[in-house]
Specification:
alpha/beta; 2-enoyl-CoA Hydratase, Chain A, domain 1; 2 domains; 6-stranded mixed β-sheet; 3-stranded mixed β-sheet; 12 helices; about 15% strand; globular
């Protein structure tokens, strides 16, 4: 089946949900079909309590070149098309943000426009040395979407976000690492392997606790100090009685007792 028929692939195995952008011949540009497929994939993940980590990766020479210009130009009613595209994409990103699981993203090649928003949906971002990041919205007379206007300044600060989005600053992989836009940079051929290692590490450690940690950090800016303290207390108390925490806690305690006896 060609990439146009299945622009989004979803595989869930042993607690890891892998979303693959599969429009490689179009640089994984965000078509309506891709947007609908992404929303459907995240909806499927949300219904699976066994998922402990999400990995987003892409086939072909680029992670995501942004919006699909052919789809926009061919739309009979551009306003209606753009509205529905936003509904699908933003529905997917909003739902993804609400999931109490860590999201790992593997990027390579071009990461532009909405592709930056797709990347910033991740908590841990592994970038290939060949990655190039730029805004692209101004070339079309558009403004940021896919969460870029909120997540970009949160990641790199307002002034750098302005350099990138308004000043036309293009970033290399090393620039992005220095700015704090990505977590680490690896050789292009190793991106997928490294991203899967990171995702497996989450699964093999404490996926529930790490997922809740992700939620605490991602949403902390909208609460007062006391509200954050209260939510931290509520979360750690709730987790302390769950199987994951009980098992890990007992393992650590036994190890400490054994080391003291030794």
């Amino acid at each position: 089946m060609n990439d146009e028929a299945r622009p989004i692939l979803l595989e869930i195995t042993d607690g890891m949900a892998v979303i693959t952008l599969n429009r490689d011949s179009k640089y994984n540009a965000m078509s309506m079909d891709l947007a609908v497929g992404l929303f459907a994939a995240v909806t499927d993940i949300a219904a699976r309590p066994d998922v402990g980590v999400v990995l987003i990766e892409a086939r072909g020479p680029a992670f995501c070149a942004g919006g699909d210009l052919d789809g926009i130009s061919e739309a009979v009613d551009r306003r209606e098309y753009m509205t529905e595209l936003a509904v699908q994409l933003h529905g997917a990103f909003g739902l993804l943000a609400s999931l109490p699981v860590v999201v790992v993203v593997a990027v390579h090649g071009v990461v532009a426009g909405g592709g930056v928003g797709m990347m910033l949906a991740g908590d841990l971002i592994i970038a290939g040395e060949d990655s190039t990041f730029f805004s692209a919205y101004d070339r079309l007379g558009f403004t940021p979407d896919c969460g870029v206007s909120a997540r970009l300044p949160a990641a790199v600060g307002v002034q750098r976000a302005l350099q990138f989005s308004v000043g036309g600053r293009k970033l290399t992989a090393q620039d992005a690492l220095a700015w704090g836009l990505v977590t680490e940079v690896v050789p292009a051929a190793e991106v997928e392997t490294r991203a899967r290692q990171v995702a497996r590490r989450v699964l093999e450690s404490a996926p529930r606790a790490l997922g809740q940690t992700r939620m605490l950090l991602r949403t902390s800016g909208g609460r007062s100090c006391q509200q954050n303290l209260d939510l931290e207390a509520e979360t750690i108390v709730a987790l302390s009685s769950e199987d994951e925490s009980s098992s890990l806690f007992e393992t650590v305690v036994r190890a400490r007792l054994a080391s003291r006896r030794g």
